[in-house]
Write a structure and sequence with these properties.
By secondary structure, the chain is α/β, with parallel strands linked by helices. The chain has helices at about 20-30, 90-100, 120-140, 150-160, 175-180, 200-205, 220-235, and strands at about 5, 10, 15-20, 35-40, 45-55, 60-70, 80-85, 105-110, 145, 150, 160-165, 185-190, 210-215. It has seven helices and 13 strands.
Length: about 240
């Protein structure tokens, strides 16, 4: 069944009223009609099976026939502090990170960031749309949080849980080894821009109890490093099956 996130305000008792955007997709794109069923997600972690009763391009309605806990949410809360990337690489990290199970994204400005364009509301809205579509497609029950962009110092100050920073010069501590010796709580992952973190930024991270970790013998692009580390963390925590 097709999945759609809707505002909780659109749900009253067992009745659901779909907004214009979702209604248009249901009516014009999917060509669904009364008695067809969809899955509605209210960002609570539950998925609602809804049987459509009224379908139009401007409005659609239905009633809830079943409620079930969504199985697509990982147990590990992983926050990705991703330095801004040029082109659409940052959007790739948002999309694939959502599919993998990232709980929150924090855009971060670091010393070597190539992308310098201001982050306005239009871009944030585009990023939120990318996250929403990826969450619907991948079976998530909650929308990952997209936080306002932060400077590197602010990001380090607010990070919590086990804080990790992949660093190509780290030869002794691997991501796997540190995950094997740490608990199963929250993880904050710091990933740099195209040019990586500066030595000064790495030193600052160490003073904030952020562990540098190696990702193996190969040098990974920034977007690859983010997704590889997310995958490894969630796999190690048994969140990928």
């Amino acid at each position: 069944m097709h999945r759609f996130f809707v505002s909780s305000e659109r749900i009253s008792g067992d009745e659901v009223a779909l907004d214009r955007e979702v209604a248009g997709q249901v009516h014009r794109v999917l060509r669904l009609g009364p008695q067809d069923r969809i899955l509605v997600l209210d960002n609570s972690g539950y998925e609602l099976t809804v049987e459509l009763t009224q379908v139009g391009s401007a409005e659609a309605r239905g009633h809830i026939v079943d409620r079930a806990l969504c199985g697509g949410e990982p147990r590990t809360r992983l926050t990705l502090y991703q330095a801004l990337l040029k082109g659409r690489n940052f959007e790739l990290v948002l999309q694939k990170g959502t599919e993998l199970g990232v709980a929150a994204f924090v855009p971060m400005v670091t010393a070597r960031c190539v992308a310098q364009d201001p982050i306005g509301e239009a871009r944030l809205a585009r990023w939120r749309k990318i996250i929403k579509e990826a969450a619907e497609q991948s079976g998530r029950g909650r929308l990952p949080l997209l936080c306002p962009p932060l400077g590197y110092a602010e990001a380090m100050a607010q990070a919590s849980g086990l804080c990790l920073l992949p660093y190509e010069e780290e030869k002794e501590v691997t991501l796997t080894s540190i995950l094997e010796t740490r608990g199963n709580g929250e993880v904050s992952l710091f990933v740099g821009p195209e040019g990586g973190f500066t030595p000064e930024e790495v030193d600052q991270a160490c003073h904030h109890n952020i562990f540098t970790v190696g990702l193996g013998p190969r040098i990974l692009r920034a977007e690859t490093a983010a997704l590889a580390a997310v995958t490894a963390i969630l796999y190690q925590r048994r969140d990928l099956g």
